[in-house]
Amino acid sequence: MANIEKIAESAVAKAVSLGASYADCRYIEISNESLSYSNGSPQSVNKSTDRGLGIRVLVNGAWGFFGSSVLTEDEAIRASNSAVEIGRASAKINLIPVELAPAEKYIDDYKSKYKKDPFEISLKEKLDYLAGLDGLMSANEQINSRDAHIDFRKINSYFISTAGTKVRQTLIHSGAGIELGVSKSRRERAVRSYPQNGGQYETKGYELLGEIDFAGAIPRLTEESLELLSAPECPSGAMNLLLEGSVVGLVIHEIIGHPLELDRVFGSEANFSGTSFATVEELNKLQYGSSIINVVSDPTDPSGLGSFGYDDEGIKAHRADLIKDGILAGYLSSRETAARISGRSSGAMRADGWGNIPLVRMTNINLAPGDKSFDELVSLAGDGIYMSTVSSWSPSDDRSSFEFGCEMAREIKGGKLGQIYKNPTFSGRSVEFWNSVKAIGDRSSWKVWGTPNCGKGQPGQNARTGQGASPILVSNVKVGA
Amino acid sequence: MIDERIIEIFKKAIKDSPAEQTELVCESEEFYLTRFAENQVHQNMGRSDSTIWCRAIFGKKIGVARSNDPTVDGVKNLIKSASEIARNQKEDPDFRSLIMSPGSAESSGYYPRTFGFPPGERGAAIEYIVKKARSGNISCAGTYQTSGLSLAVVNSLGTEKFARNTEYRFTLTATSAEGKSGWSQAAGRDVGDFDYKKVSDRALEKASFEGEPIKLDSGQYTVILEPDAVANFLLFLAFLGFGGKTLYQHRSFMSGKIGEKIMGDNITITEDPFNAQIEYLPFDYEGTAKKKVGLIEKGIAKAGVYDSYYAALAETESTGHGLPPDNAYGPYPKSMVIDGGESEVAEMIESTPAGIYITRFWYLNFLNPMKTMVTGYTRDGTFLIEDGKITKPVADMRIQQSMLEAFSNVATLSKEQRLIPQYGALMLVPFMKINNFNLTAT
User: Fold this and answer.
1) What is the CATH number of domain A2-229?
2) Do B41 and A52 touch (CB under 8 A)?
3) Using one digit for the tens of pLDDT, what is the confidence trace for A122-133?
4) How far is B135 from chain A (nearest CA, A)?
5) What ranges do the domains of chain A cover?
6) Where does the pLDDT of residue A2 fall: very low under 50, low under 70, confident under 90, or very high at 90 and above?
7) Domain ranges of chain B
8) Which residues of chain B make contact with A89, given a CB cutoff of 8 A?
9) ipTM, 2 dp
10) How close does chain B come to A479, measured CA to CA in Å?
11) Domain B5-205 listed as CATH 3.30.2290.10
């Protein structure tokens, strides 16, 4: 790391000597290991490492960036030269120079909390773990497709900026999930996933695998998938809707997290991810949700997938209000976007590796838990529908409307769960939806659900985010077509 | 490293491999992108990177590892890592062998002026566009990227392949002060062919179209899809059903239907890497030479595309469509062409008494993959057609539509085809007029 620090410092010094008013350099080294098991056999065991550095400069009030995977001082100087040349080209076009909100200076070495480093566990132990999951799923011979996967990531990074910050970070992520399925014919198939579609990911070590109760869930999932095969289609109409926690997590992600990214609000994503209905004129005014809706950005959560010590422009992780008592209270922001509303960065500037420019991304976007047990929520629903495990999602480009599909629904009748329905969907307008939330599940059902594949930006960048959620009861939601 | 030096590095490193068979693949890219929004450049970047994969084989045990260190020592470490994985794997009884692909490959689609295109040139085009936009009170957001890419494959059976190409891509969303938006994009290999004035005018004109967007009721409509929207569907169809893996696993809408009619008579879809506008790399990530493949001919399902693994399972030959060895998708077509028809676009509009003109779709997602049922939205240029004329902007609508049904209800195809980039694919597709298309008010 010492040599890398020297190279990064040379790159920043070179940029300043070429006229940059601000410069930062990030070295990132990512190790990934992903293993999957399918129908009794290992499907894939993939290991990868990726490292490089990216230098970002402000020249004449405009941004330039260059990233390279060649880790020499000569290449770092070439990267600085290119970044400054690119920045000068940007400045020729721009009428308004970039301004940055203030940033504290930090010298730190941050490590995320973990008990077992997954990269020190043998491949054999990992494959045995997957074989164990496969064995649990094969207990019922009617289950004819079984998939299990585990994933691990270690990120070592070094950040230096002309603001004086020098930060080393080590983050460890772990993830695991299963999907079991049953087919009646080639065209009729029912699947159930756990803990959510694509699995659960957290900022934790190998110990995460022991915390997920696959053994307890698999018999229930097996029963549900078999019942789904002959289940009727989910009924349509406006009704009370009870959503399982992981579904709420993705709804938060799509129609609270994304529309509150301040770069998006200003139009930076107009050409790709889209814009936002939650414009800055609405700040501290918009009744985003009912009075029980409180949402924060919290990268300090000990195990959320969107946790870190510092963001990718050196802002220390901290909690920030997004929705308070139902009112829009803040945004996810960077130093540049925060300056445009005379604020401070929320610390949400994050890049996908060394070769991309940081963008405003979600951290952990957490909906505060309520006070209802799951049984109380079912009882409160009276008559309605319960949906579990998202299988499909499609928000509008300004995030003002949406449609989600789920793997399974259950009838709620007289305050009790009833028969299973297949192919459930729900849709609506974002603000109406959050204002129709009548009750929220309590702390015992609350979890930060990890999303390891959030896409944004051009070139496309992947971010790892968390969404804290428990089940919610929403009234008058459009279910079905 | 967009040159052949990597071949020599691979040949040195592979000599010491402990594996019975070893494959090394390197994809290198020098990539530049200028991104603008609010008529200002907000991102401007360059990146130089190489991704290297090693597949090590012991009997029928396979190990795959990936890194971005192209030095001899880096590649040797990668071979060691892949070998360790392979030794710990169970056997894959369906694996046969790596392939020996004789001969070298000819690069096509490499244009030095695209590779060396300076940031100032991208900036000049953007400056023209944003100045024009500012004068019309339009806000522009978009991207202009140029890149050079090389692919090298060496394996212990004697395969040695190297090829490179270049690409430019341009996208533009123009938005009026009232919130009306228009979209256009372009792509190709030779940036000298790119007429940014003509392409950007398409988006600017849509954003400037007079009138407030009207809201339409949910229902079935006759629609005219621009090539961008057609390509949105085509890429989803490819994902669902044109790959050998989905066919072998009976997850494809074409499973059990090869030789049957699944689309309208007027639909012919060909995977054509050699098309003069597409000029895709001539071999795949296994080094197998690419083949032209008829996917749909006059509405009849004909074939899918294969890599060596799924070709062996399906008892056919690889068509040269293998992806990197750690991918989970299986073989995939990236250079599809839909045959054009006989109509001018203007005639397609003039012959429509009532309909909707759609520029592109957004956030398509599957509702029922086997029925090719997708949901999503229209975006950046949806207009009402009345008595053969485009008359009013329409507020974006949700689509809930089977793509196979849509491609069975195509009334007319345009002569004009446009090259549409999406993700790693370049597709050449026409405009389509489609009857009975499901749209829902939001």
Assistant:
1) 3.30.2290.10
2) no
3) 999 999 999 999
4) 14
5) 2-229, 237-479
6) low
7) 5-205, 210-442
8) 34, 41, 44, 118-120, 122-123
9) 0.91
10) 14
11) yes
